[in-house]
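Hey L., structure's done. Input below.
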Amino acid sequence: VEYAIARDVPVLLHAWWKATGNLANESAPEDVAELARLYPQAKLIMAHLGGDWQRGVAALSDTTACVDTSGSIVERGMIERAVKRLGADRVIFGSDSAGGALAVAYAKVTGAQISDEDKQKVLGDNFVRLLGRTSGVPRSGGHTACQP
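Output:
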């Protein structure tokens, strides 16, 4: 994480909460939250909304970390809740397209009951901003995704 901070690059962290319990050394949302508290300046992205998306979003609510929307789980209200709890600037589109249909991943966001502006942020603007790029992304007071 310190290496990534020094180079101003994001870190994607796989996290999941298994109903049957995680194996030793498998990351859970709480682990990502702990790391985010240790390194609030890091650009951390928790993959899959943490698996159990309600638990994942709750775990990161008081941190600067982001979530991505990847994964096969599609549940009504998940994107809306993530945007409401974390803010649209901290939700990043993820497809997990190697293991699922890209159309389903895209529809999770486009079908969500959030503003068109928030959909644009989630579907691309947040990640572009996270990479430190500004091309095609409107400036919004210097705030960057995944950071306060």
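The helical segments are 2-7, 29-38, 53-60, 78-86, 102-110, 116-130. The first helix runs from residue 2 to 7.

-- N.
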